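A note on notation is needed here, since sequence and fold are reported together in a single record. The reader may check this reading against the record printed directly beneath this paragraph.
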Amino acid sequence: MIRLALCGIAFGLLSAPLAAQELKVGDKAPDFTLKGSDGKTHHLADFQGKKAVVLAWFPKAFTGGCTAQCKSYGAEAGELKGMNVAYYTISVDDAETNTKFAEATGSKDYAILADPDKKVAKAYGVLRDPNGVANRWTFYIDKEGVIREIDKAVKAAQAAPDTVAKLKALGIAK
């Protein structure tokens, strides 16, 4: 009886789904295909060999910190565009919500990406829990698709100036 119970426990552990391993600096960034607030579909692979990419995750549209973060990126659009880098804010909200959020925050110079099925959020390890919102983390990806930095201490209102400084420090955007 005990042997049977132990076999059952072992089988249960072996058949349980494995959690995704947390991404770290030096890892290849997971590819994605996501709809943006600009109505276009965006792919990480489109930038391979061309330019660095910044993915600035935020928890939920129309909340205080997320509004400050997206407005920050809108205010720094000129400097970021001059650095020849693709940059996006991204959440697990749907595309319609993010489009309305982009309009409300005046975020016209960059796309807010939507990941409502949370597949990309899971691949990047940013979900607070399986059904939750994303953590406010920023990923810096070089033009070869390698993660060069992960900022897990983002200050929402300073997000864009901090991104500009980090890109300069990393030397991955000009």
User: Anything to note?
Assistant: Residues 1-19 have pLDDT under 50 and may be disordered.
